[in-house]
Amino acid sequence: MEKVAGLISKDTVRWVSFIAQGRLKCLDVRPRKEFQIRHLYGSVNIPSTSIAGCWFQLPAKQEGFVVLEQDGTYIDDEEGDSCSEQLRQKGWKIEGSIRANTEFWQWIEQKGLIEQGESKRLLFEPSPHFKETIPVIEESLSKSEARALDIGCGSGRDLAWLCSRESKIRYKVTGVDAEKRAIYRFSSLFETLGYEDRIEHRQIAKMDPVGKWKCYNIEGKRDTNIPELSTLDLVKLFGTFSVTESSLQDEKYDLVVQIRFLHRLLLTQTDQLLCDNGFLFLCTFVNDGIHDYEYPKGQEHRLELGEAAQLVRSSSPSMKILKEEIGFIEDGRPVQVLLAQKQVNAP
Ligand SMILES: C[S@@+](CC[C@H](N)C(=O)[O-])C[C@H]1O[C@@H](n2cnc3c(N)ncnc32)[C@H](O)[C@@H]1O
User: Cross-referenced CDD domains, in alphabetical order (predicted)?
Assistant: First the structure.
C-alpha cells in the first residue's frame, strides 16, 4: 500500500479525500463503459466526447472542481490540450486534474473508494432557494407520489435535482419551455441520469402576452393539431384528454415551479394549475430598490416589491403566501422568492 501511495501526488491525495467527503466535485471524462467498470466514489461521468452538448450539466463557473481523465480524452480533437485544460480555457474553475493510470486505480482500490455502474450524482446545483424551500413543501405533502410542473424550465436542472433526492416523495415531472433547445436539453439530462420514467410530459409551448399558450412540435414548428390554449386547457392537455370536471382535480399539480421566469398573467392564474393544498414556488428577478443590475432588462422580466404576492393572491382567495423574501443568485442579482399554497380547506 505504502509503495503505491508513494506514487500518488499530494494534490491527488487531498482531492480524493475531499471528493469522498462530498466537499469537492469530480468530473470523470472517460468513456461511459470505462466509468461503468470502475470509478472513483463520488465522481460523475460526462464523457469528453459528450461535454460540448452538456455544458449546462457542469458546476457553475465560479465553483472549483477536479477532472479525472486519461490520455487521449479531449473535448475537441483539433485542440491538442487535455480535457481539463480545455475546460479551464472555456472559463471553468478547474482545481486540478487526476490522471486515471494504473497506480491511481490500485491506490483507490486499496482505499476502498471504487464504485461500479452508473452514478446518479449531479455536478450542478439547483436554485439554492428552491433547495432550501423543498423540505417545507414536503413536510406538508402527505403523499408518496407527487406531480411537479416547471414553467420556463430551461434545461430542467431543478426538476432533475428534485428527482435525484432521497425523499419519501417520488415526483412525476412536466417541463414546459418556449425554446426547443431547452426541451431537448431537458430530455437529454433526464436520459443521462436514467430518470426518463419520471417525465410525464415535456412540451415546447409559449405563453403569449394575452395569456394564450401556443404549442410547438419537436422541430420547433407550431403544432397545428393543438389550438391556442388557456392555462386550464394546457393542464388538461397534460392530463388525460377525457377528464371530467370532477376528475380534473387529479390532473392538477402538487408543485408548480417558476424560476427566473416571469409572466404576470400566469401568476394571476396560479390556482388553476394547483390541486388542493398544492404549492407554487417562484423565484425571479426583482427591483429591490437597492441593487442595480443590467440583465434581464425591462419591467417585463422584473417584479416590483410585493407584486408577486399580490398577483398570486388575486388568482383565488384560497392562495396563501407562506414565504415572501428577497434572495440573491450566485452573481448577486436580487430575486423575489415566494412560496404560496392553495389552502382550500383552511379554516
Ligand atoms: C432564464 S431561463 C430560466 C430557466 C430555468 N428556469 C432556470 O432557472 O435555469 C427562462 C426560460 O423561460 C423560457 N421562457 C421565456 N418566456 C417564455 C414564455 N412566454 N413561455 C414559456 N417559456 C418562456 C425561456 O425559453 C427560458 O428557457
Answer: AdoMet_MTases
